[in-house]
Amino acid sequence: MMKSKLKSSIVLSMLAGSLVLTSCGDNKKEKDDASDPMQHEMHQEAEDMDHAKETEKSMVEFKNDTIQEVYKQYLTMKDALVKSDHVGVQEAADKIVAAYGEAAKDNGIALRAKRFSDVSNIHEQRDIFSSLTKALEPVLKEAISDGKIYKQYCPMAFGGKGDYWYSDSEQIRNPYFGDKMLKCGRVEETIM
């Protein structure tokens, strides 16, 4: 009886330990990479090249040019958030507004994109990005004509509430945490 309880405790401990190791937080490999900045940069460059190759292969087409441009700028914004580049986020947001032209004043997506203009705090930008993502979902689903969009999810975003974003690649590049938890997330849905 005692041996059975001991075995159960050991199994439960091992299970709990494996869950901790597979969570979205930093793992040992990432910590090892961070200890040598040059090695981290080379590793990051290789990942960026892989992402660029994968992005080239997964071009998405939409039924109209406006949504095509909006999605392109959304991806640029997502990538800028991954790099914590607040200026790049603002530039992409301005291009989203410009894509709607005169209709921008009455368009929910353009109105959300306009909110980036005066915000340089990356955390506030990530908040607005969440709102923009929610507004884009029905538009993307309705307008896609060819290719795939990956709806991705991070359970750790916004204090554990979790949140979504869209990508043209299955590869996870988390816009809510950037390099702190670059690969935290999973593909929740594939939109075709």
UniProtKB/TrEMBL annotation:
Region of interest called Disordered, as start-end residue ranges on this chain: 26-53
Residues spanning the signal sequence: 1-23
Pfam families with a match to the protein in the record: DUF3347
Highest taxon of source: Bacteria
Record keywords: Signal
Record-linked PROSITE patterns: PROKAR_LIPOPROTEIN
Domain DUF3347: 70-142
Protein name per its UniProtKB record: DUF3347 domain-containing protein
The organism's taxonomic lineage, starting at the top: Bacteria, Pseudomonadati, Bacteroidota, Flavobacteriia, Flavobacteriales
